[in-house]
Amino acid sequence: MSRSNRKVVPECAQALNQMKYEIAAELGLISGGYAAGSGDTEFASELGGTSGSGASGHVNWEQMATRDVGSIGGSMTRRLVAEAERVLKGL
Questions:
Q1: Which of 3, 5, 18, 55 is most enclosed, with most CB atoms within 10 A?
Q2: Are 69 and 61 in contact, with CB atoms under 8 Å apart?
Q3: What's the pLDDT tens digit per position in 8-67?
Q4: Cα–Cα dist 66/59, whole Å
Q5: Taking a C-beta distance cutoff of 8 angstroms, is the pair 18, 36 a contact?
Q6: Which spans in 1-91 are helix H?
Q7: Which residues contact 20 (CB under 8 A, 6 or more apart)?
């Protein structure tokens, strides 16, 4: 079975990225927030850059523990399924 990270709805990429950072912050894995349009580069102050001045760092997801990244993905999945169930109940 082949796996792909292709998004079914590419327009949702920014919202998913925001959710990823919010959940990581809630779990205490990173500090800071997410600025719309900043992609994977929001946490400049955490990484030694200066946020707000246009300089930005990069969260190095490859250096995070597999368990931590899995926790983020699992939480994202739970939230997305809960939202889909909520929407379907309203139909």
A1: 18
A2: yes
A3: 888 998 999 999 999 999 998 887 655 444 444 444 444 443 343 333 446 788 889 999
A4: 15
A5: yes
A6: 13-26, 66-89
A7: 72, 76
pLDDT beyond 50 at 85: yes
- Give the closest residue to 61 by CA, choosing from 41, 38, 34: 41
Q: What local confidence, expressed as pLDDT, does residue 32 receive?
A: 63
Helix, strand, coil percentages for the chain (3-state, nearest 5): 50, 0, 50
Q: What is the separation of C-alpha 54 from the centre of its chain, rounded to a whole number of angstroms?
A: 21
Please tell me the pTM assigned to this model. Answer: 0.65
Contacts of 35 (CB under 8 A, 6+ apart): 42
